[in-house]
Amino acid sequence: MKLAALSLTEFANTIAGETPTPGGGSVAAYAGALAASLTVMVARLTLGREKYRDAWERMEAVIREAEPLSERLLGLLNEDAEAYNQVIAAFGLPNETETEKTARRAAVQNAFRNATRVPLETLKIVTELAAFTASVVEQGNANCITDAGTAVYLIRTAAHAAADNVRINLGSVSDRAFADRCAGEMASFLDQADAVVRRLEERIVSVLAQ
User: Fold this and answer.
1) What is the distance between the alpha carbons of residues 25 and 114, in angstroms, rounded to a whole number?
2) Is residue 99 part of a domain?
3) For residue 1, pLDDT beyond 80
4) What ranges in 92-175 are assigned the alpha helix state H?
5) Where does the Cyclodeaminase/cyclohydrolase domain start and stop, copy by copy (predicted)?
6) Residue 176 covered by a domain
7) What's 61's domain CATH number?
């Protein structure tokens, strides 16, 4: 089932179902995709407005770069659900003989590593997106400040939700080199995203106060 192809109602109902997937990781990716879409929308509503002529070139770059990020994040909806389904499947493998136990342990570890990579990729892309969202907040059409602001808040939600999914999966990974590397990347991406969000929140408040 392609989650991104579902209607909004179908997607919400699927999340509310009795299975653990799709869950928070998929929702984090979707929040990021919505942030990217709002960012592109504000860029488009800035282009052609003479008042913002100096920002047109940057807005064109935002559209060109942010649209593929939205597409990639939509793809991660399914990847996140599939990754956790692999974890469930690994735990369901035979576990009687020593050979079976060894194979099961390897499958479980591989599944948890993959379940870590997917939300880490979500976090990485959302952090990259933050720079483009910053452009529309700081240089874009001021009439769209609440749309740009919504993108900012979605980035914060997506980043922290993805980071939490990285953390919970890393807790089950026995490969410490892999775990340490992922934890370091996660902390770096999250710090970057949070720094941009804090700066943009100040800008949003300032524009709305005018």
Assistant:
1) 13
2) yes
3) no
4) 98-139, 145-170
5) 7-187
6) yes
7) 1.20.120.680
What percent of the chain stands above pLDDT 70?
100
To 10 degrees, the CA torsion angle through 71, 73, 75, 78?
A: -150
Q: What share of the chain is helix, strand, coil (3-state, %, to 5)?
A: 85, 0, 15
Model confidence at 168: pLDDT above 90: yes
CA distance 153 to 137: 12
End-to-end CA distance of the chain: 47
* pTM of this prediction exceeds 0.85: yes
Which residue from 123, 111, 110 is spatially nearest to 25, judged by alpha carbons? 123
- Residue that has been written with the tokens 């749309």 in this structure: 147
What b-and-e string marks burial along 75-108, b requiring 16 or more CB atoms within 10 Å of the CB? bbbbbbbbbbbbbeebeeeeeeeeeeeeebeebb
Distance CA 121, CA 119 (A): 5
Q: Decide if 3 is inside a domain.
A: no
Looking at the predicted structure, is the pLDDT value of residue 84 above 80?
yes
**What is the rounded CA–CA span in Å between residue 71 and residue 142?**
26
Q: Which residue has the tokens 């590593």?
A: 113
Q: Could you tell me the two tokens for 83? A: 């990754």
Task: Dump pLDDT digits (tens) for 100-131.
Answer: 999 999 999 999 999 999 999 999 999 999 99
Say if residues 54 and 194 touch (Cβ distance below 8 Å).
Answer: no
